[in-house]
Amino acid sequence: MISHPAPSRHCAVEFQALPSRIGQVRRIVSAQLRYWHLPQLTDTAALGVTELLANVHRHTGADKHCTVEIVLLWDRLTISVRDHDPRLPEVRSPGTTATSGRGLALVAAMSASWGMRAQRGGEGKVVWFTLPAPPPGERRPTGIRPGAGSPSVARPAAAPSTAAVREPGRASPVPG
To answer: Helices marked H in the chain — which ranges?
Structure first.
């Protein structure tokens, strides 16, 4: 039997995590998933990336520059957000009347796995989550022509960062 390597796809978007830009990134993620024939993952992926970007906006200092990476491996979609703030986020247990503090718990609840890691040298962190994806033979085309749904601000990268797509099961966050 001939084995074929798992197909992978990668997309990265760099921008400032400002409220006016988060909606644009949601649309880019959604368009990319439709282009990869994964429209069933768009709502969940957009929600997860919105929560991670809201954390970047709210908790990083003046440097809100970040990178969103979307990596599709055979049956798994990984979305990660990398920023320059070395402080790792904490999962909180907000009170019933709190208006914030539920983002990471929401990401944990909606994803197959998630985690975070500090970047080497204290130069920031990566927070990621994974969603199960149907194998390539079960993906449904959405009518988008090649190039038509490809976001103009997204740039393909040569290879995904393996550190950003590590999946050690349902990862426990490291307290900051």
So the answer is: 19-35, 42-59, 103-110
Asked if residue 1 has pLDDT above 90, the reply is no
Statement: residue 53 has pLDDT above 50: yes
Burial of 73 (0-12, 13-18, 19+ CB in 10 A): middle
Contact 8, 71 (CB under 8 A): yes
- To the question of pTM greater than 0.70 for the whole model, the response is yes
pLDDT band at 46 (very low <50, low <70, confident <90, very high): very high
Could you identify the residue written with the tokens 């550190």? 163
pLDDT at 44 over 70: yes
Does the pLDDT value for residue 45 go beyond 90? yes
8-state DSSP, 155 = B
Long-range contacts of 153-156 (CB under 8 A, 24+ apart): 153/13, 153/15, 153/24, 153/28, 154/11, 154/12, 154/13, 154/28, 154/32, 155/11, 155/12, 155/13, 156/10, 156/11, 156/12
